[in-house]
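Convert to structure. Protein one:
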Amino acid sequence: MTNAKPIAFLLGSGFSFDLSSIPVLRGLSKETIKYISDNAASDLHPFPSLMTHLKALPEPILDDVERLLTMYRGDNPWLARSYSAIRNGFYEEISKAVTEVIKERQKERPLKQPASDQMEDLVRFWQNNLSNVVTFNYDTLIEQFAVQALSNDQNHLGPAEIYEGPIANLANRFSPYWKAHPGKFFNLIKLHGSTNWFYSGNRSFASETIYFDPLFPVKHPGTALTASNQEDLIELLVPPLLDKDPYMQHPLLRHLWNSAYRAFFRASDIYVVGYSLPVTDLTAKFMLTECGHSSKAKWHVLQHESTCDSEFQTRFKDTFKQVKFYPVSSKESSIEKLMTLLRDHGHVRQGK
């Protein structure tokens, strides 16, 4: 039996860092720029001119990959249209570089213990309670764990089963559509897109199909994923723009943000892990403020001690009516702390 009122989860980059040390912000920005620099000689990418441009940027932008994406994707009215078009091209290249860095780190860096062991318990908790899990993260760690934890010989789970919203399988782009097996799973609501989601890259793409790479071997005839399926597409990574309007015209993205709002509004408890409520993301700020002041949910914020300072806490207190902070020490993982809280708050049944 599940709770009368559901609980929800909001995950930021700190959650993924606790699992596998995927770099966040400054670290991700440095690795992205290094990737661009290392591939500057490639004939397939216009990286030399991009590197020239990056070297002229101020350090605060270079140190924050989200600011970097926001600057290149934003519609800057003070620039000539031709120069704005060049910047949009750079945005595509930076998005590809970010994606490659995250994918490489997911492959290269071992999952942290004991966090990875506890992650299977957390995924099963989400599944047993049909939880709504909202994330701003681009990586696919949750999908990876969900497939491992919830698949069996008779029922092979794919990302489509947990994705909220109608997103098309990239493997089916040039082949007959096959319907995924029925079943109910927890909802993964990815507000900022994902490294395995693809679209044309056009500024106006409201009528286009968004595809996802199934990530794992497809065991259905006629659905092989080849390079040609995605060669004219780019990864859908939504930066924390002050104005997300160009993205919000797409029905899928609007659906995802509406689903997140409804999940938070209906929840009795919301657990926030590794999310800092950045002041630059006004769309998220407005949505969460409205949820925080119009719902009766209790917000439980888990944050590492080193960053859970008064400024951090003030941002959350200004946003949510009922908020409590749980500092995570350097000797424990946020996932371990989260599972302990879920048990202490009576959300985990004995033996589960």
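Protein two, convert as well:
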Amino acid sequence: MATTVGEIIRTAMRRIGVLSGGEPLSSSDGPDALRVFVQMVDGWSAEPLLNPLIVDEATGLETMQILSAALPAGGLTEVVDLPAGYERALVFNLCIELADEWGKEVSRAVAINAGDSKRLIKRNNSRTPILKVDRGITDRNYDYYDIAAGV
């Protein structure tokens, strides 16, 4: 979904009560909030399951896109195109990061949504590994073992 970093930050700041509806970021709060956002996204880059998998349609190969590389280095007004579920996760988790910086408490609902949205991304990005056996060491014509069938 396409949005701007500024919209993500404004939404998070509104949810924790720093901004009211429609109120713009101030020139002093904007850079500080952007710094917190960048630090959070950088931290997420260290968690492999939070980084989206991109499937090359031509080859079918999956590659992991580092989330911080997908976001613009520019600023609040640049448009970002996020995979499904990422905007929600960024907003709710940014609420938690910003609340401490601005001396606010997050509601229980925000805390639950932050955890749930992050878990959903991790679940969607996880891939179950498939154990394959080299055909050279088996007498079968296939390279897998079906535990249910016993072959």
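The beta strands are 2-4, 53-55, 62-64, 79-81. The chain has five helices and four strands.
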